Amino acid sequence: MAHEDDHISDVGSTFDFKGFVLKIFSYWQLILVSIGISLAVAYYNNVRKLPVYRLGNSISIKDDQNPFFTSNTSLTFNWGGTSDKVNTAITILKSRSHNEEVVERLQYYISYQQDGEYQRVNAYGFTPFKVVADSSAYQSQGNTFTITFTDPETFTLKTNFSGPAASVYNYRTKDYSTVVVEPGEFSREYKLNEHIDLPFFSGVLVPTEVAPVIGKPFYIRFNHFDGTVGRFKGISVNPQAQGSSVLNLSLTGNNKPEIVDYLNGTVRVLSENMLERKNLFATKTIRFIDSSLAVKSMELQNVEDELNRFRNENAIIDLSAETSQLNSKLTTLDVRKEEINRQLAYYQTLQDYLQTRQDYSDVPAPSVAGISEGS
After folding, report:
1. pLDDT band, residue 79 (cuts 50/70/90)
2. Which residues pair with 185 in a beta bridge?
3. Max alpha carbon distance in the chain (Å)?
4. Which ranges constitute the DSSP H helices of the chain?
5. Which residues form a coiled coil (predicted)?
6. CB contact at 8 A, 153 and 191
7. DSSP string computed for 308-344
């Protein structure tokens, strides 16, 4: 057993590390080629890979009215306060309906491209024109339009149709349709601010601050609406801190102006919609108050009409004056009644006295009962 252990130790100690290293270096040509290929592939991927940007902005959600200072807390009290508004804003900003409205307003279903060093790149914000599409008309979806300026005001609109029919889409009604076209290349010249009215394209190209380069092609394309909304629906919305009224919005993309415009657009749409809902609430409240006042006014008018009928039927012109006169008359009649009762009592007493007495020297005078003594 001891002999076997010594043999194993001898075998392990005979490993020639120097020879191993020299053998590896004998393949230096292959190693250099492998390293060169790896660096070339890495460089090729890096230069072709588009940059990715992540931009963000912050908005503050505040409660502009103290719920305890309302005249009718049962009508306008907001149980959630600012935190409820923050949660509502987060839900709205991430909702599909909100992002659909933003995409429609900004017309982000239109993509702009230009030739890059290795591939076409997003040219939003870097084109000498902006497409203002007629959202009520059908637009060719899936076809790429090439726009090339022949002078600072004139451009050529080109596209290619592979068949006699083209698929078109209405971004307002969300309907698909098909139009008849001529197969092959379509090319026509237009001017900036000139309305383009075609079965597959309807809109206006308005100039921007970017100066056109004669002969440089730009590419526009009407993309799938749902796909565009799904891409921008990935916007990140988070509160700055737990319970904070400040929201941080961020969006990732490969075009800075496009991200900036979308972030500003989504905040603008949110603000306008919140203001619209507030105005709608105020309008409905005013309508409710007006309707309540109208009902009360009608009731008051009915009471006034009934009072007028009572006055006419009873010949009363001034109810308050007539009431005062009646009270005065009643008071006078009460006084007169008391006087008559005293007189009747005197006469009754006098009758009893005369019937029961023989001496009439102590007969009470009539003036005691308010009876004037005649001669």
Report:
1. very low
2. 160
3. 181
4. 2-13, 17-25, 28-48, 73-76, 81-94, 96-106, 225-232, 256-314, 319-356
5. 293-320
6. yes
7. HHHHHHHT-S-HHHHHHHHHHHHHHHHHHHHHHHHHH
